[in-house]
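A favour, since you know our structure tokens better than I do. Just paste the record in under my message, thanks.
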Amino acid sequence: MKFILVAASAVALLMTPAIAAAGDQDFTLRNRTGYTIDQVYVSSVDTNSWEEDVLGRDTLANGEAWEISFSRAEDQCEWDLKVVYDDGETAEWNAVDLCATSTISLFYDGDRTWATTD
């Protein structure tokens, strides 16, 4: 009887979905700049490359949001973020703690782009 109980417990543990680790970096990027964003790069702080545009062929119009997801195996929290507007201007943020962030909202006031996090 103990064997059946232990076996049933082990099967239940294996079938239980994994609880999201504290290192979950998925976030929503909101464009509140008044301009269209053509490219978004999210790159490890450990690399010197921006890697690939997470929007692909899409753009992020003013007022729109984009869900950015990471592999569940990823455990790094700090990432660099770069956006490229449709006129070629760029804005960058370094060492953003994505483990503590669910939303990044971008704003522009005519002089600078800034970000808020939730």
Summary: The helical segments are 2-15. The chain has a mean pLDDT of 85.
